[in-house]
Amino acid sequence: MHVNMEGAPTEEEVIAGCRRGKRWAQRALFERNYEAIYRVLLSQSGNPAEAEDLVQETFLRAFQSMAAFKSKAKVSTWLTRIALNAFYDVRRRQRTHRQLLKEQRSRSARAGTEYPGMATQNALEEELVRREKWTLLQRVLQALSDRDREVIVLCDLEEHSYAEVAAILDVAEGTVASRLSRARDHLRRAVEGRTDKSGKEPEAGSSNG
Amino acid sequence: MFRSLACIWRRRQLSAWADDALDERGARKMEHHLRLCTGCHEKLEALRALREEVRAITVPPPPAAESVWERIEAMLDGGAEAEQMAGVLPGNRGREGAAVTAWLRRSGRRWRWSAVAATVVVGLVLVWSYALRGPMMHHHLMSGEATDTPMVLDVGRYVREVGGGGLPVGFWRTYQAQSQRPGQPVEGLLFEPVLPHVLPGGYQLSEVKVLQEACCKALQLRYEADGSWVEVFQHPGAHPVDFGEATLEHRDVHGVACVVAQWPEAGLVARSFVVDGVNLVLLGALTAVDADALVAALVGNGG
User: Fold this and answer.
1) Which terminal Cβ of chain A has fewer Cβ within 10 Å, N or C?
2) Which of A72, A94, A116 is the last residue of a domain?
């Protein structure tokens, strides 16, 4: 059933409807938040299929636990938190020690081979422009830890304020600041690492011809 | 040269400064520092450029809302069944548990047994290596070249960064474990630090890195516990550390001569002391009691 957009329900009405299990309200909650939740999950997982599955998981969990939602909070904040929890639940299941080792090996193998023409910071910037920026960012993001990536995604890609991110992650604002600082530091190193390893950095004196 | 620790912790605030998220006092101090320190200024510019690069990126559009909603609705209508699946991963893909079970069923008994046996072997090897060597560290340091012999931290570029001197922070070991595929053993690198893996208060070693900036160079071990952190800097040379604008005090902590530094506005404290001829600095958002207990642990009086 479609929501009549002329008298579009307010957020409070939608939440109240969801609490009573009304399908129109659930649909409205989905439609208003779907894109933002998908973006966060795609950036975090790096995999469109997984992001789509996680979107479903997020909204199903949200509908099931509407009672736990405190009306003072922003519903988008609450949904983002559920989405990230769903993501981490899946990651936990997937990550055995064996997989970690495998990933790490393939990561070092990738780092050496995948970026042939990049020698300097400038070359990387040109590359960022020339190629699809998103694909490249994803590769660098996926080299970060989940926790580092999460703050970059929320603060820089989604452009949430420190206060909003603090609410989503349930930590202090100061913690957001320090985690973001570290994550950006790691991001920069990841970008530079890419250029170091595949380019013809003179002192490295190693491998690729 | 290791000129000032002030740079090290100012840099933690650079990112917040770039986002206009420092309080007035912090912002004033940062402004002052940036006027004096070209290294930090360059860092700020690089940080801003990177942030803008990320912000300029457009995330690809999601699949049509309608189709995703239809699947959600189907699961809502599925009632109890959907609820059960919500605990796993709903959707058309990603039911890895079911897929693995189906695969085992299809591939018959021989494969099932060899998979179980291999899993047990890998599990035992992992437990064994953990028990012997402490937790595995999966960090950027792990991508260094593997070797067959234990070695002082002299992996690839890290040696170049610290100027060729292997610092006695830990050892790299390669190890092999049985793989599920015959003839293809799993190889890995273990980092075994000399300093303790775990500090009092449940702080676990989480990262080892080299700080190499225009104004300072130090080896940093980061320990984390439930959202809080402590860092141990091990810096070369015997010269005393300059703590910049911190309030200083010289104290005896468990028989060790310490310089105690505090930056109240940043909520940070530091202890600088010498162990076996190596300068160590302990930095974190600590109380005096925590910090003293950690100093004791690092000099070996910690029990």
Assistant:
1) C
2) A94
DSSP collapsed to 3 states, A33-75: HHHHHHHHHHHHHCCHHHHHHHHHHHHHHHHHCHHHCCCCCCH
Of A38, A177, A193, the CB nearest to B21: A177
- The residues pairing with B172 across neighbouring beta strands, listed in sequence order, are B151, B191
A105 to A136, A189, B145, B193: CA distances (angstroms): 20, 19, 11, 21
A140 domain residue, yes or no: yes
In Å, the largest CA–CA distance within chain A is: 68
CATH number of the domain that residue A149 is part of: 1.10.10.10
Task: Examine the domain organization and report whether B188 and B213 are in the same domain.
Answer: no
Please write the tens of the pLDDT for every residue from A190-205.
887 765 544 433 333 3
From the list A50, A56, A93, the residue facing B90 with the nearest CB is: A56
Q: Encode pLDDT of B184-232 as tens digits.
A: 555 555 555 556 778 888 888 777 665 554 444 556 777 888 777 888 8
Compare CB distances from A184 to B15, B71, B140 and report the shortest one's residue. Answer: B15
Which residue has better confidence, A106 or B297? B297
Q: Which of residues 40-79 of A touch B (CB under 8 A)?
A: 42-43, 48-57, 59-61, 63-64
Last residue of a domain, one of B174, B192, B210: B192
Both tokens assigned to A188: 């920069």
Helices (H), ranges, chain A: 11-19, 23-45, 48-64, 75-94, 97-113, 121-130, 133-142, 146-152, 162-169, 173-198
Residues B225, B294 within the same domain? yes
What is the extent of the structural domain holding A143? 98-198
- Asked if the Cβ–Cβ distance from B126 to A49 is below 8 Å, we say no
Assess whether A106 and A189 both reside in one domain: yes
Residue span of the structural domain in which B187 resides: 118-192
Candidates B7, B89, B212: best to mutate against A (most CBs of A within 10 A) is: B89
